[in-house]
Design brief:
Blueprint: H1 15-18, H2 24-43, H3 47-54, H4 63-72
Helix pairs in contact: 2-3, 2-4
Amino acid sequence: MKNAKRQLLRGSGNVFRDLGHENADAEQFKAILAAEIIKVLDRDQLTVRAARIRNANLERFTVDRLISIINRLGSRVEVKVRVRRAEAVEYRATA
């Protein structure tokens, strides 16, 4: 294994897209929102709630539910949307 050649691939910036998930952009957005919730919980030292959201399956949460949680924690969400043509990129796992 030491002598095996490794290939370095540059990611797209979205791990869900790199892994071939169908709804990669939505999953990435949910993950960003969840990370922001965790930051607020950590900042306010709300560890029990933080543990729940850290271990949560984000498939159970809608984007509007995550935004609602952020709002109830006293923060606001600002979204900037940039739409661009998708690039045809093939990602391969290498050993």
